[in-house]
Design goal:
Strand order of the largest sheet: 1-2-3-5-4
Radius of gyration: 30 Å
Number of helices: 3
Number of strands: 5
Structural class: alpha+beta
Order of helices and strands: HHHEEEEE
């Protein structure tokens, strides 16, 4: 059997095995095997040991690329914290600046006005009431406040 077919079978096998994985690691090894198969098909005089060396070098290069991309994604995931800026608002005392008919109201937060929700449903607010931000609503990212 021609060694090029071995590399071709190995490449397809690794790519099919990647269907089970989620990190695309085997995909890069499969690509290295496919490139080695293409070189082996084009060069009849290349020995099998030279093909193995080519596959090893290509695998190292592609695994280094995979590792760089994988670590970069992990750093991005670790540094991303949704709504992390809102944590600094918890405990902030402010006042109601406007009351809407739908039960929401506006408060002044750090020199800007934002729509807020009552931490306890049914609590009535009026303009000028002092309130404390106790939490952030996960669905709307609006501050939830209580009267003080």
């Amino acid at each position: 059997m021609d060694p090029a077919y071995i590399w071709l079978i190995l490449g397809f096998g690794l790519m099919v095995a990647e269907v089970v994985g989620t990190d695309f690691f085997l995909l890069f090894l499969g690509i290295a095997a496919m490139v080695t198969a293409a070189v082996a098909f084009c060069s009849d005089s290349m020995s099998f040991s030279s093909q193995c060396i080519l596959y090893g070098v290509l695998s190292l290069i592609l695994v280094a690329v995979w590792l760089f991309r994988h670590m970069k994604k992990k750093e991005d995931k670790d540094s991303y914290q949704p709504n992390s800026g809102f944590d600094s608002l918890k405990g902030l005392v402010t006042e109601v600046s406007e009351v809407n008919t739908d039960g929401t109201f506006k408060i002044i937060v750090k020199d800007s006005v934002c729509l807020a929700l009552a931490a306890v449903r049914g609590t009535e607010f009026s303009v000028g009431d002092r309130v404390r931000i106790v939490d952030i609503d996960a669905g709307t990212s609006r501050p939830m406040v209580e009267k003080i």
